[in-house]
Amino acid sequence: MTGLPRPAVRVPFHDLRDVHAATGVESEIGGALLRVAARGRYLLGAELAAFEERFAEYCGNAHCVAVGSGLDDARLALWALGVGEGDEVIVPSHTFIASWLAVSATGATPVPVEPGDPGEPGPGAFLLDPDRLEAALTPRTRAVMPVHLYGHPVDLDPVGAFAEPHGLAVVEDAAQATARYRGRRIGSGHRTAFSFYPGKNLGALGDGGAVVTSDPELADRLRLLRNYGAREKYRHEERGTNSRLDELQAAVLSVKLPYLDAWNTRRREIAARYGEALAGLPGVTVPEGRVAEPVWHQYVLRSPYRDRLRRRLAEAGVETLVHYPVAVHASGAYAGAGPCPAGGLPRAERLAGEVLSLPIGPHLPDEAVEVVIAAVQSAALDSWEEGP
């Protein structure tokens, strides 16, 4: 018995070896790692200080405090603001679970808000809908956490207009978005949490994150909390934690940072080509950028025939991923836990069944982009009459 013929060209979803080789940073990364090893200091040293200064400057802000993961950045930001037991934080219903876990880790409760209309083509179909914030407000609400998902910034102006009169902190989750909103960089505001997980647009060789802020007092408290509650060794002022970006990761990020804008430009070029070629296909909705300049951390289309489309792409040699296949409130971690609005979260559940991420990245050659396009077109132009 013979299997299906192997496709002539295979397009992996993401391979960091390809990214580093194609973008020419391999040797620089190797040199940075050797430099740190020769120096012999691996925590809270010169590499960390240099990266924090460079990344704060990149974001157009005063302070950057780098931490151990893309979960700890948001967790520590909320903790440093005093969010804790009995408090509530408004979060998007459609996001990676880390956004909710950061809230839960402080003892507070995540209160989900649905995204915009899934029938619309724009990124609002993925992102927290500012018009729904008022309905989620209670006397226990302390903060709002807009998530700039897939590299698309949330419409921040109405979020701020809602939060300010209610005395709420806004903690931006920019784990996926070194982007711009209305001409200003994400990270130029009061408090923004970034992830440096290896697959991010700016990724380390392991876990890492940072909080960028204009508030010197918040930055000082974050530095205290990330280092066991101590500014000076063995002088513990409070019960902190251990969450420090190590020198190796800081050195790697400093190598990559000067290339980030060029890499994001390439992502936008690929996204534009996808959008041009795939718009109007039956059973497929492509994303758009509107009030912002997205950086396309993922290129996520939607289809009610997602699973069949994904199988067809795999047969054509195109690897895809689903971000994310289970809505957070339906996961084992949060199933049955409140508060959840009456009627559930149907938009988050619909998205979990429809989203599909295509390969994208600065390493992807035009030939691979055209293979992806041809595979999607071929699948979508076939009849969907069999159903999902």
TrEMBL record:
Keywords: Pyridoxal phosphate
UniProt similarity note: Belongs to the DegT/DnrJ/EryC1 family.
Keyword Repressor included in the entry's annotation: no
Organism in which the protein naturally occurs: Streptomyces fradiae
GO biological process: polysaccharide biosynthetic process
Pfam families the record matches: DegT_DnrJ_EryC1 (PF01041)
Protein name stated in the entry: DegT/DnrJ/EryC1/StrS family aminotransferase
A GO MF label: pyridoxal phosphate binding
Lineage: Bacteria, Bacillati, Actinomycetota, Actinomycetes, Kitasatosporales
UniProt cross-references to PANTHER family, sorted A to Z: 3-OXO-GLUCOSE-6-PHOSPHATE:GLUTAMATE AMINOTRANSFERASE, TRANSAMINASE
